[in-house]
Amino acid sequence: MNNWIWRTKEEKDQGFSLVELLIVVIIMGILAAIAIPLFMQQRAKAEDSAAKSDLRNLANEVSTFWADSPTGSSIAITIDAGKYKVVASPAGGTAETSTMAKSKNITAVNVTPGTGQTRENWCVDITNPEGKKTSFALRADDVIQEGVTCSGSGGGATT
Question: Do the beta carbons of residue 99 and residue 84 sit within 8 Å?
């Protein structure tokens, strides 16, 4: 009797059946269908965080400039050779240029208004087409707004 059980078990030990393999493939497909969109959302969130970080760094540069500069001064930010180029022009003084590291996918940066900026009246915006939100703006009152750019007057942000 005992010998018969072992012989039957050995004969059946030939691998997985087609149904078992199909079930495993279906389960893996379901898990992939759940995981891939979540991964893509995390990537977009990371792009947004990088854009906000760049925006905060640029705003700190602008804020520092305005703390030290008289009325009638101006500041401009451009993207040059993969870096931010900040040109600060104090009224009656010599223009100073500095560069800052830039995140990979940032395509545009703007300081508004270009002339007539004051300590209380400026706005910096950034464009990142790879993020969940494609644009961010930071005003002199230290408020980051998502999905908007700076307007040409008053340093406010518009959609």
Answer: yes
* Stated pTM of the model: 0.69
Cα–Cα distances in angstroms (integers) from residue 133 to residues 37, 39, 103, 110, in the given order: 17, 17, 15, 17
What is the residue-wise DSSP string for 27-78?
Answer: HHHHHHHHHHHHHHHHHHHHHHHHHHHHHHHHHHHHHHHHHH--TT-EEEEE
Give the mean pLDDT per block of 10 residues along the chain (159 residues). Answer: 60 79 96 90 88 89 78 80 85 81 85 64 85 86 84 48
Mention every residue, 6+ apart, whose C-beta is less than 8 A from residue 10.
none
Confirm if 89 and 37 have CB atoms less than 8 A apart: no
| Domain parsing of the chain, residue ranges | 48-158
Which tokens hold the place of 119?
Answer: 């300590």
